[in-house]
Amino acid sequence: xPEVTQTPSHQVTQMGQEVILRCVPISNHLYFYWYRQIxxxxxEFLVSFYNNEISEKSEIFDDQFSVERPDxxxxxxxxxxxxxxxxxxxxxxxxxxxxTFFGPGTRLTVL
Amino acid sequence: xxxxxxxxxxxxxxKGAPVELKCNYSYSGSPELFWYVQYSRQRLQLLLRHISxxxxxxxxxxxxxxxxxxxxxxxxxxxxxxxxxxxxxxxGGFKTIFGAGTxxxxxx
Lengths: 111, 108
Description:
The complex is a heterodimer. By secondary structure, chain A is mostly beta strands. Chain A has no helices and eleven strands. Helices cover 0% and strands 51% of the residues of chain A.
């Protein structure tokens, strides 16, 4: 059964550095998402992407964040200048519509 | 405002006891409701959706439009049911919103 994959599983970075989190959504899905989960807190929506553009974003998704689908398979989340509070689990997800399929997550640790 | 509420952060029951995880939503229109589960060290995965009316792993959930609730129930909890459960409405827009989640702990 096809799955969403994410790399790396764990990323450690210094505050102020740029990070790129990578995802390969399920191939025939049209909607792509990033969510994050700060330790001990709920899963929060960051952004959705459809038809090669952002369709919706939350207030968390400020100018430090960007998403890209550089080719037909990858979907990336870039954080331009990481802050301590960006430390969280980041989940990529994709959907044909309705049911959302999640990747295993990337744990981002900002030191 | 669109909102989903899971009032219990933690629910602890004994093995074999019935369990009910509560979810209330406040949405305009008719959202499609889902329950997602996250077992320890695993990804979030779909448990069930209201339109399918299925029973998955012994769990059922009935959509009550009058009470705007979508509680998850299981008559006899098992230890392997211990996990984090999220109620998640999908309104046909571009996102699924998750409740705060309820951690279910089933004691032996």
